[in-house]
């Protein structure tokens, strides 16, 4: 059988973020395994996905579980689930389903519904070779996402499938990286036209490749009116899950910051930049005075523009400069498609960071290629004595994830990550986690490598350390690093201050924190009530000795 699923939309989903919205995505599971994961729709309780995919089946007695989550950087919050018995579907007909979401552990009665179309039909015998079929769709091949592909191989690739069309405008000759089709398989094309496919875990399929860099210069605020004196002002910039915070300024009608920020614009993330002006009084009392939004898709590329945007609902305007510049240095690929292993790509990078091109783009300091080869003797995080390890690479504010190797203490990732370098004094931090299903991942170890200490082109084994990097953890990780940079740009960047960002990433609503705070209020109420009752008994002379003693102590 062939089951075709069209995930349409969700309605009235539950709130999981403190800002009153959620970032929902959907997982489709069968026999305990996730076979499809949708894209993330940011800040929307009525998301629209319109995604279609197909799955071959042998047994219709199974149940399919559909689970909705709120996207977070470390752990995803559960938003409800529904199930479908495949034997209940009508053959050769589109079954339009409205699936109510439910969570037995939640107090919320209505968690919203998912609208899904499912059609079940007999599968042709000629189509049994593949594992997952795509519905008719377009895969756009980007210059930063495919390796070298000859014209003949490219044309044969287009002609191979009637279900999948390849759009390339304008036609590209030299391509670098990896093409990802968005389901469970990734195909890597080499110069000889051979293909290599690899199953990807959920973590790898997350939107983590950014295509543009947003540069913001916060200038000042104008026309602000205050009813009282005191307090400090700061500005927050939010783009998807990235949150940046300015320095605090004294509460005046025209505060000036003159700070610079750099944010990444991802392929599937929101293109709406949210700007908020906050007032801070005391240590913990913070109040949002006004907000404004900028649609980055309407901003011309590589052009710096001055924005004077009115704040809503309060009076006043914010003044800042903004530029959206394309970024082609980010990629995640396999060893067969390492960017610097391609002679033409290496030559292009060497020319890009040559001294004669120093003044072309001063913010583009360098290019880092990281080959994550393997880890050995990791901690066993699961009850079966194994782990499901994956890596998180962090350089400055940038972050990339590897795929997960299941049930192994000696995983081999053999993946290549390419990152732009903005400061050669940064430290590359590689953290190994254990994937724990829908729960938060378990920490296994961490390695930190200063960029200036890199041994170029050599495979180096680094011992894994604890979270604070103070002591050794169990196991080691083998990396091969290569850094290209322009020394003049790097020297100029040294004298500029580091960018600031919130310490917490996209804070979430926590039921545990709420119950803790309610318990504290209850204890405080009981204490005050007992004190008042004691004072009342003294005045009513319920105990003569106690009342006399209380008045003697008072006087």
What's the structural blueprint in terms of helices and strands?
Layout: E1 2-11, E2 24-30, E3 33-37, E4 48-56, E5 63-70, E6 77-85, E7 94-100, E8 113-121, E9 133-134, E10 137-140, H1 151-160, E11 164-167, E12 179-180, E13 185-189, E14 195-199, E15 210-222, E16 232-239, E17 242-245, E18 249-250, E19 256-266, E20 272-281, E21 285-295, E22 305-310, E23 312-313, E24 317-326, E25 331-334, H2 343-352, E26 366-376, E27 389-395, E28 398-401, E29 412-421, E30 427-434, E31 442-450, E32 459-465, E33 472-485, H3 487-494, H4 511-539, H5 544-554
Parallel strand pairs: 10-11
Antiparallel strand pairs: 1-4, 1-8, 2-3, 2-5, 4-9, 5-6, 7-8, 12-13, 13-14, 15-19, 15-24, 16-17, 16-18, 16-20, 20-21, 21-23, 22-24, 25-29, 26-29, 26-33, 27-28, 27-30, 30-31, 32-33
How would you portray this structure in words?
One of its GO terms (cellular component) is synaptic vesicle membrane. By secondary structure, this protein is mainly beta. It folds into four domains: 120 residues, C2 domain (Immunoglobulin-like, Sandwich), CATH 2.60.40; 119 residues, C2 domain (Immunoglobulin-like, Sandwich), CATH 2.60.40.150; 165 residues, Immunoglobulin-like; 38 residues, no CATH class. It is built from five helices and 33 strands. The strands form eight sheets. Strands 16, 17, 18, 20, 21 and 23 form a six-stranded antiparallel β-sheet that branches. Strands 7-8-1-4-9 form a five-stranded antiparallel β-sheet, with no helix packed on it. It has a five-stranded antiparallel β-sheet with strand order 25-29-26-33-32, with helices on one face. The longest helix is centred in the last third of the chain and has 29 residues. 30% of the residues are buried.
């Amino acid at each position: 059988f062939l089951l075709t699923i069209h995930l349409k939309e969700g309605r009235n989903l539950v709130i999981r973020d403190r800002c009153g919205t959620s970032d929902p995505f959907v997982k489709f599971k069968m026999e305990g395994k996730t076979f499809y994961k949708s894209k993330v729709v940011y800040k929307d309780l009525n998301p629209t996905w319109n995604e279609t995919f197909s799955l071959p089946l042998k047994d219709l007695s199974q149940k399919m579980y559909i689970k909705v989550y709120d996207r977070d950087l470390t752990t995803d919050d559960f938003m409800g689930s529904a199930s479908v018995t495949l034997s209940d579907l009508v053959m050769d007909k589109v079954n339009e389903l409205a699936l109510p979401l439910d969570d037995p552990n939640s107090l919320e009665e209505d968690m919203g519904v998912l609208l899904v179309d499912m059609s079940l039909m007999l599968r042709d015998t000629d189509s049994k070779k593949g594992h997952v079929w795509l519905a008719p769709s377009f895969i756009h091949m980007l210059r930063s996402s495919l390796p070298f592909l000859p014209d003949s191989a490219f044309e044969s690739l287009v002609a191979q499938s009637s279900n999948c069309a390849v759009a390339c405008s304008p036609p590209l000759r030299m391509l670098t990286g990896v093409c990802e089709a968005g389901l469970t398989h990734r195909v890597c094309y080499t110069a000889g036209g051979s293909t290599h496919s690899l199953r990807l875990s959920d973590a790898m399929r997350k939107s983590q490749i950014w295509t543009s860099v947003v540069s913001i210069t916060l200038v000042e605020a104008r026309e602000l009116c205050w009813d009282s004196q005191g307090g400090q002002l700061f500005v927050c910039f939010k783009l998807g899950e990235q949150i940046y915070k300015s320095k605090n300024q004294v509460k005046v009608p025209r505060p000036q910051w003159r700070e610079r920020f750099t944010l990444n614009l991802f392929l599937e993330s929101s293109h709406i930049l949210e700007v908020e002006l906050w007032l801070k009084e005391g240590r913990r009392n913070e109040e949002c005075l006004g907000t404004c939004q900028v649609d980055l898709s309407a901003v011309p590329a590589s052009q710096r523009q001055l924005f004077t945007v009115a704040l809503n609902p309060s009076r006043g305007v914010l003044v800042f400069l903004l530029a959206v510049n394309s970024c082609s240095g980010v990629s995640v690929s396999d060893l067969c498609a390492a960017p610097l292993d391609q002679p033409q790509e290496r030559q292009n990078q060497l020319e890009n960071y040559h001294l004669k091109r120093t003044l072309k783009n001063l913010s583009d300091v360098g290019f880092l290629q990281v080959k994550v080869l393997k880890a050995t003797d990791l901690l066993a995080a699961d009850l079966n004595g194994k782990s499901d390890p994956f890596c998180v690479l962090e350089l400055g504010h940038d972050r990339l994830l590897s795929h997960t190797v299941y049930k192994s203490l000696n995983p081999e990732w053999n993946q290549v990550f390419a990152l732009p370098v903005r400061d050669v004094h940064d430290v590359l931090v590689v953290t190994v986690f254990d994937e724990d299903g829908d729960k938060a991942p378990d920490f296994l170890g961490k390695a930190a490598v200063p960029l200036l200490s890199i041994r170029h082109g050599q495979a180096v084994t680094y011992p894994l350390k604890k979270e604070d990097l103070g002591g050794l953890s169990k196991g080691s990780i083998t990396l091969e690093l290569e850094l290209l940079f322009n020394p003049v740009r790097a020297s100029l960047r040294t004298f500029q201050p580091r960018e600031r960002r919130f310490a917490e990433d996209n804070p979430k609503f926590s039921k545990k924190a709420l119950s803790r705070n309610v318990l504290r209020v209850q204890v405080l109420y009981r204490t005050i009530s007992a004190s008042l009752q004691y004072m009342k008994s003294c005045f009513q002379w319920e105990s003569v000795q106690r009342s006399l003693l209380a008045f003697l102590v008072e006087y």
